[in-house]
Write a structure and sequence with these properties.
Number of domains: 3
Oligomer: single chain
Largest sheet: 7 strands, mixed
Number of helices: 18
CATH topology of the largest domain: TIM Barrel
Helix content: 40-55%
Radius of gyration: 23 Å
Length: 480
């Protein structure tokens, strides 16, 4: 029996540097799970985030799996339509969007995977190998999915979470582009539930890889890919102090300290001297925190249980201990006034931060902010998903009930200017300095390609059309 081909499509706008900065570890986990279950010689795999029409013609897949977040779901729909039009093969969609809004399963999508995908995709591929297709009467027996049955959506009962994430194989990074700065996950979920965060709704609970499993993956990255900086993309890596202590001991014992540096996610209310000592003990160079606001009233609304003073103290304590602090902020909350935002700006400006992010509050499906936006009629379960954008744009949904678009735009630009000055001042000593040459090339390339594509398409701003071949423009126009 010849190998069946699976094409994994990451529905992103790859011209935006932030979306293409790192390869998709989700696909790495899925491929690794399939390889462990079926071995070699059963499936052939490929990952793509662009030129999908070309991939269909060259790779000739038997099945396509698409992953998408909410802001790119229009792309996912366009890809699914393209795949059906060109190849007529099964399309499986997964990711956080279809998990939170499974009813968004498009007619061109055969199956939607709700929640974690490793076990479900293995079961779907077992069925495909047995039947040569994905018949509805058999899909009913697979938990945790949604599919079409007689032109009606049918959702099966929920499947339990992966019972022990430590038993998952290491991601199949041989299919990914791994640089000297890469990332990994050592846990799933977060113990906190901020108003705006969709990740905690996706994972539902917190599960940790044991320390030795983390060490094995770190060693794999050092030995095979010569990695020098690893970002732990866990929602809140620093929440598990016991494991951090174990990691510090194991890193020292196995000669890892000094070979690689780490960046982690923390939270201001848990940063103290003990945590700083643990970070230094395991080679953490920088810690990122969602500081969100310098206005206590806004901070209470966004995340509760944390004080502006704790944000301030955490940044300064990290700096005192030789750990670079990075922070993100959110403006545009429903009742946030101009003075509230300026209070956050003054706080933002005074903090010794080199790397910062500033976002517009955006309603993401599954979150309390989404529910409030639904009640106000700002969003719906069937909408233009390009409006979901945490950066400021003309199409972006604004949650503010007191500020106009113009007022909020002016304040946002004020933050961006200060953010730029902080970056110029602080980045020379920051571990992210190693990324600058690559980022500069990406920004130049993205800017050039976007401008050329806009000219090619009569000034249309959305560059998605470049991901498809020219004869598919009518399809794109119908989906955007």
């Amino acid at each position: 029996m010849s190998e069946k081909r699976i094409l994994f499509v990451n529905a992103i706008n790859y011209l935006r540097e932030v979306e293409s900065r790192y390869p998709s570890l989700a696909f790495g986990y899925l491929i690794a799970s399939l390889k462990r279950e079926f071995g070699e010689g059963v499936f052939e795999y490929r990952i793509a985030d662009r030129e999908v029409a070309h991939q269909l013609e060259e790779f000739r897949p038997d099945v396509v799996c698409i992953s998408s977040v909410s802001q790119n779901f229009m792309r996912a729909k366009a890809y699914a339509q393209l795949i059906k039009q060109i190849a007529g093969i099964p399309v499986i969609v997964g990711g956080i969007h279809i998990t939170e809004l499974p009813e968004n399963l498009d007619k061109n999508m055969d199956v939607g995977v709700i929640g974690e995908g490793e076990l479900k995709l293995v079961n779907l591929m077992k069925l495909y190998l047995e039947k040569g297709e994905l018949p509805a009467e058999d899909l009913e027996k697979i938990d945790g999915i949604i599919f079409w049955k007689d032109d009606v959506q049918f959702k099966t009962k929920a499947q339990e979470l992966v019972p022990d994430i430590a038993n998952l194989p290491l991601p199949a990074r041989e299919y990914l582009n791994v640089g000297q700065h890469t990332y990994m996950f050592s846990s799933r979920g977060c113990p906190y539930r901020c108003q705006f965060c969709a990740s905690t709704r996706f994972y539902q609970t917190v599960r940790w890889h044991p320390a030795m499993r983390v060490v094995e993956e770190v060693e794999h990255l050092i030995e095979k890919y010569n990695v020098k900086l690893i970002t732990f993309n866990d929602d809140l890596f620093a929440a598990n102090r016991r494991r951090m202590k174990q990691l510090g001991e194991l890193f020292k014992e196995r000669g890892i300290l000094g070979k690689v540096k780490f960046t982690v996610n923390a939270r201001a209310n848990i940063v103290d001297q003990e945590l700083c000592d643990l970070m230094n003990g395991m080679g953490v160079a920088s810690a990122n925190m969602g500081l969100e606001s310098g206005c206590q009233r806004t901070l209470n609304w966004l995340k509760g249980g944390i004080k502006v003073e704790q944000n301030w103290d955490a940044v300064h304590l990290l700096k005192k201990n030789g750990i670079f602090a990075s922070g993100s902020f959110i403006i545009g909350c429903p009742e946030e006034t101009r003075e509230d935002i300026l209070e956050t700006y003054r706080f933002f400006k005074a903090l010794p931060l080199a790397v910062t992010d500033v976002y517009i509050l955006m309603p993401l499906p599954g979150t309390p902010v989404w529910q409030r936006a639904l009640e106000r009629g700002l969003v719906s379960n069937d909408m233009d998903w390009d409006k979901i954008n945490i950066r400021f744009s003309e199409k972006a949904i604004l949650m503010s009930e007191v500020l106009s678009y113009k007022e909020l735009r002016s304040l946002y630009d004020k933050f961006l200017k200060e953010r730029f000055f902080k970056l110029i001042k602080g980045i020379p000593n920051h571990p992210y300095l190693m990324d600058l040459p690559k980022l500069a090339l990406k920004y130049i390339s993205s800017f050039t390609k976007t401008k050329l594509q806009n000219l090619k398409n009569g000034g249309r701003k959305d560059p998605f059309v470049e991901a498809l071949s020219e004869h598919d423009e009518d399809l794109v126009n119908s989906c955007l």
